[in-house]
């Protein structure tokens, strides 16, 4: 009888299985399960200090607060959820200060802040902090990051206003850039985006950026569509999607600080075999779009900042998150629309050397991103497959991921 009385407490509770909209394939050692579905185009995802999920949902929703039931490992499910902020203009960016008390969320035009209470899941004291970021019809997201190495600043990304935004060649347009804002200043008085310090520019559409354990800032950039070179269409396999480095956030003398990364004139090679007069070009080498002439030459491009790594064209990396010891970065590839054979639609791992803080593979590598979660067949993509968007580590060091096409949040087993 004593044994029988103990039996209910010795068996761990199990979350109900949620069948995925489209079942993915996992690499050896990895697994995953759906934590929640039925969301409204989830994009940005973060955890608060109490272990609750906050998502920015692009489907005319706003911000959702999700409290979890945690049975250990990937056995995690939703205890309760609610709409934290109702705002149909919220479309991607979300960030918390490391103390968990100030929440930032973005739209096409604006960044707002709220005072946030993790214990009750409540916000108050809404403020406009950054404004006037509107683009015409392109690249509408504004990714946000409060670095752990410097919790006094907010990084804000803004993409180009067009496939080739010629005006972005002028730094004063404040497009295709990442800028730095002092939180104390923007909390006191709202500012225009042009006021921020330039961390990097010439970044076509850097939807994803993150911080390594040393305080280094890394980004992933989406290359140009429909690329031509010397009158030849090379867009099926060029340019590459870039992984760029922007230096230590606390090192204002960093050689990467405020530098130009090439756009709109320059991109990096993925497939040199199809590039006219490309005998001297290798994977990752910056080169000029169109026909080289005058000052617009490959040499001009190579004088600007080159990517640290390249990924296949049009795979659309949208985030980069480092593990705690700096041995790996995880990158979700949202997937292509601008190539005949769909590509992307996967979660990948890039190995880093924690002693040096750089990838173990050289910049010329075509195998640096190792797929850990992917669609077995991309033929049904983008509408009939999972499309990863954003990543977040929970307080226990487990990796979570949003998929916007399937309206899901996943937990990924084996990621570390």
Automatic annotation (TrEMBL):
<dbReference type="InterPro" id="IPR011041">
    <property type="entry name" value="Quinoprot_gluc/sorb_DH_b-prop"/>
</dbReference>
<dbReference type="InterPro" id="IPR054539">
    <property type="entry name" value="Beta-prop_PDH"/>
</dbReference>
<dbReference type="InterPro" id="IPR011042">
    <property type="entry name" value="6-blade_b-propeller_TolB-like"/>
</dbReference>
<protein>
    <submittedName>
        <fullName>Soluble quino protein glucose dehydrogenase</fullName>
    </submittedName>
</protein>
<dbReference type="Pfam" id="PF22807">
    <property type="entry name" value="TrAA12"/>
</dbReference>
<feature type="domain" description="Pyrroloquinoline quinone-dependent pyranose dehydrogenase beta-propeller">
    <location>
        <begin position="24"/>
        <end position="413"/>
    </location>
</feature>
């Amino acid at each position: 009888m004593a044994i029988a009385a103990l039996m209910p407490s010795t068996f761990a509770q199990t979350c109900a299985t949620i069948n995925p909209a489209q079942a993915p394939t996992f690499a050896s050692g990895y697994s995953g399960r759906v934590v929640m579905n039925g969301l409204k185009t989830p994009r940005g995802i973060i955890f608060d200090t109490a272990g609750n999920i906050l998502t920015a949902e692009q489907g005319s929703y706003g911000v959702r607060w999700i409290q979890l039931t945690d049975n250990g490992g990937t056995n995690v499910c939703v205890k309760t959820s609610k709409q934290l902020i109702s705002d149909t203009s919220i479309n991607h960016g979300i960030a918390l200060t490391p103390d968990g008390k100030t929440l930032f969320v973005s739209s096409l035009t604006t960044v707002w802040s709220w005072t946030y209470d993790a214990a009750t899941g409540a916000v108050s004291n809404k403020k406009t902090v950054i404004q006037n970021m509107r683009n015409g019809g392109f690249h509408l997201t504004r990714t946000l990051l409060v670095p752990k190495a410097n919790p006094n600043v907010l990084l804000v990304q803004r993409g180009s206003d067009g496939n080739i935004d010629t005006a972005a060649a002028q730094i004063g347009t404040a497009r295709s850039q990442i800028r730095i804002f002092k939180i104390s200043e923007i909390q006191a008085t709202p500012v225009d985006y042009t006021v921020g310090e330039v961390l990097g520019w010439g970044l076509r559409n850097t939807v994803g950026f993150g911080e390594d354990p040393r305080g280094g800032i890394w980004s992933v950039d989406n290359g140009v569509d429909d690329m031509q070179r010397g009158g030849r269409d090379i867009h099926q396999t060029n340019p590459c999607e870039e992984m760029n480095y922007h230096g230590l956030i606390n090192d204002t003398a960093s050689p990467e600080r405020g530098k130009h990364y090439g756009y709109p004139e320059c991109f990096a090679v993925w497939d040199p075999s199809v590039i006219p007069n490309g005998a001297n070009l290798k994977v990752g080498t910056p080169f000029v779009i169109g026909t080289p002439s005058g000052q617009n030459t490959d040499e001009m491009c190579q004088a600007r900042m080159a990517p640290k790594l390249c990924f296949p064209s049009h795979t659309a990396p949208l985030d980069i998150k480092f593990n705690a010891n700096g041995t790996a970065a995880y990158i979700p590839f949202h997937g292509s629309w601008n190539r005949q054979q769909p590509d992307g639609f996967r979660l990948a791992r890039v190995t880093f050397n924690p002693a040096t803080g750089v990838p173990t593979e050289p910049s010329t590598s075509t195998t640096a991103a190792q797929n850990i979660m992917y669609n077995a067949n991309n033929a049904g993509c983008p509408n009939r497959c999972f499309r990863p968007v954003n990543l977040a580590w929970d307080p226990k060091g487990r990796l979570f991921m949003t998929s916007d096409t399937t309206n899901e949040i996943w937990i990924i087993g084996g990621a570390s």
